[in-house]
Amino acid sequence: MKQRFYLFLIIVAALMLTACVDEELPTANTPEGNLDALWQLMDERYCFFDYKKAELGVDWNEVHERYRKKLSPKMNNLQLFEVCCDMIAELKDGHVNLGASFDLGRNWSYWEDEPENYYDSIARSYLGHDYGIAASLKYRVLDDNIGYIRCESFNTGLGDGNVSSVLSLLAPCNGLIIDVRGNSGGSLTNADCLASHFTNEKILVGYTYHKTGKGHNDFSTMKPDYLEPAKGTRWQKPVVVITNRQCYSATNDFVKMMHCLPNVTLLGDKTGGGSGMPFTQEIPCGWSVRYSAVVSVDRDKQHIEFGIDPDVKVSMDMKDVMKKRDTLIEQARNLLYQTVFNEN
Amino acid sequence: MIRQLLIILAIAVSTYVWAQEDDASPRTRRLLIGIGSANVMDTYLSPYSYKYNDGRIDLICENFRKKGFDGVGLHIASMENMARNVREYEAGLYVQSAFHLLHRRMGAFNLKAGPMSYFYVGGLFNERNGNNPAQTHISLMADLSAMVTYDFSLWNKDFQLEYMLDIPFVGLAYSPQFGQSYYEQFMLNDYDHNCVFAHFVNTPSLRHRLLLNFPLGNMRWFVGYNGVMDQSKYNGLRYHSYSHQFLIGWKL
Predict the structure, then answer these.
(1) Domains present along chain B, CATH in parentheses
(2) With an 8 Å Cβ cutoff, are A211 and B179 in contact?
(3) Where in chain A does DSSP place strands (E)?
(4) What ipTM score was computed for the predicted complex, to two decimals?
């Protein structure tokens, strides 16, 4: 019995030697402390360093040295915020943000520097006034018996019932346009829900993996992502998905899934990308740090962080704009008409 | 992993069964309420401790047998980060059952020690985070439990000083991977070492308590200190939940 008691004491002593589980990042709320914490946080958790090095030449250690020189002990919060934002903007990732109470640090160059290919007033004229609304979907039948669904966001909850109802109402149409221009994302579950109504079988649409440690290459094995058919109404006719550079994050994922389907054509501009699921952390001064943490690639294991090319590249024609016509919607209608005509 | 799971389950269940087979000696039930500080860090949510404008309340119910005790406890905690601009909330429930195999009496001192099964389920919520807003903690551990009591009289009344120690020894715990999202786990069914073999090195935790037990009026009261030092470090994630509490309770 005595031996058991001594064993117990040894275990307690061993336990005490293992010390506290405490913070590892810099804790000083100074310009240096905050910048170092931001740099280290990204260094350990951001998931695209190797890809960004290959594509953009970003050397994260060099970035740290360069931006640390821009610090001064007397700089105020606004100046520090600017330096920190410039540092993370080197990654050219729309999912990387620095959030303060007075501003949101971001890099939206993926669409701000590109043609929009979308005019809200013109696109709305196609919906008219008597369109239907089902959760985040606005829809109607166009004059040439083509169904038109406008999906502006995946933030609003979308259920199988919503999509089934819309597709049932549009069932007599010869083809369907899904317009996701300007949709900057939202919930992946909503994107999955919509896409699942366009396949009859379980298909491979990509792979997902995440970081397992602090090293730039510490990743889990790739896990295949499958799109499974919805239990409700499933669309069987041709579909055109209209995209532009503002299609980002969950919308990029939606386009990735639709791109794998045989009856679907992507039309418009390249999507904005954003294939890293963002997590949120923070630095000592309380600013939030958002960064890409989980990688999603396409079914060929290729990165889609910088977007997905359309099958048919179409840009807005200014002559059409003058006539209040949407070039991309008109091209989509023509494409569907030709597809239906050829089938018959 | 299945072998480890079976061993842990066997230890936990056997501890529980031993506890149930205890003799039918008079039982003591007590209810304790703890109020104190909270200091929580979970690097899945934030690299920093949340320990400002903090508070934690525990509600503990225990039933003592001759050879051990059973307990159930519930706690809620709220705390802010060092910039005091974000709040986290923690809640947890545990069920424990101790079987004190070792029993030594040395005068007024009474030492009891033995294994204890300890099941915990709890969660931590960060009000700002997007895709990682919360973290779940679930564990089933075989702990080492020890208890020393000292009986004495004062003003012709019976007093008892009690020190209780609980150290998680070995078990199983749930944890996401370092950068794994809950979306991957539950929507894509992506298992990645989420069931972790926990032991006293990667779960260096300790819970202890000092209580004075005394009669007042028609009741027996308990007052004292409760210290919680729950820690873990697996799958690249670090977690701690510390609390120092003032305890008050009474015999039921």
Answers:
(1) 2-251 (2.40.128)
(2) yes
(3) 97-99, 104-105, 132-134, 137-141, 146-151, 175-179, 203-210, 223-227, 239-243, 264-268, 276-282, 288-298, 312-313
(4) 0.90
